[in-house]
Amino acid sequence: MVAGARQNYASRLAQDGLDLIEGEAHFTGPKFEGSHLLSAIGRIPNTEALTLEAAGIRLNDHGFIEVDEYLETSVPGVYAMGDVKGGPAFTHLSYDDYRILHANLIGHEKASTRDRIVPYTVFIDPQLGRAGMTEREARAQGRAIQVAKLPMSAVIRAVETGETRGFMKAVVDADSGQILGCTVLGSEGGEIMTMIQVAMLGKLTHTAMADAIFTHPLLAEGLNTLFAMFDA
Q1: Bridge partners (DSSP) listed for residue 32
Q2: What contacts 25, CB < 8 A, 6 or more positions away?
Q3: Which pTM was predicted?
Q4: Are 35 and 41 in contact (CB under 8 A)?
Q5: Contact, 221 vs 209, CB < 8 A?
Q6: Burial (0-12, 13-18, 19+ Cβ within 10 Å), 213
Q7: CA quadruple 40, 180, 96, 184: dihedral, nearest 10
Q8: Is 108 an annotated catalytic residue?
Q9: Residue 11's beta-bridge partner residues?
């Protein structure tokens, strides 16, 4: 897995495969071989036919409907939810948009998208699960952080099942010990990430996770080792 890569050149190999070169120019980047090439070109919002400008509803430069933290558009009393408003295009995020609008319009609450933890899982092999801030995002905000990273080869269950590819990674606030984000690449990475997400929702510290009792020998037991690294 190469993060932030840009494909420069692709050619077909004689033995039914692909030869890819990463880089900006002159084909100087690292070379990879593979069997298939999937090109993800992004999504275009289906808003043009709605003629939203007639209602005074603003779109952003990419054609998505602009909303505030309460999902209200530029026209008071008109709301947008789901993929049409831009941002991560996840089904579970659309469900949460509905929760917010139902709470506010039916329950007369002040639910907001502010500070909500948005998780996602990429169903590759092994799974990639992520929630909260990345290390890069936390540093970009000027936060004082600590980072711990545990290879799956150090997780007993992963060794038992013979699936030791990947890692667990956590980012915590250096002052409060609060968990800011996590990434889990490994067997059932999405499930393990969700356990950390629940801990984040409960505002548990890294010490609480390190001291928690997890069933032996589950993959979750690796969380003890991961979070104990902060106190080492």
Answers
A1: 20
A2: 8
A3: 0.83
A4: no
A5: no
A6: exposed
A7: 50
A8: no
A9: 19
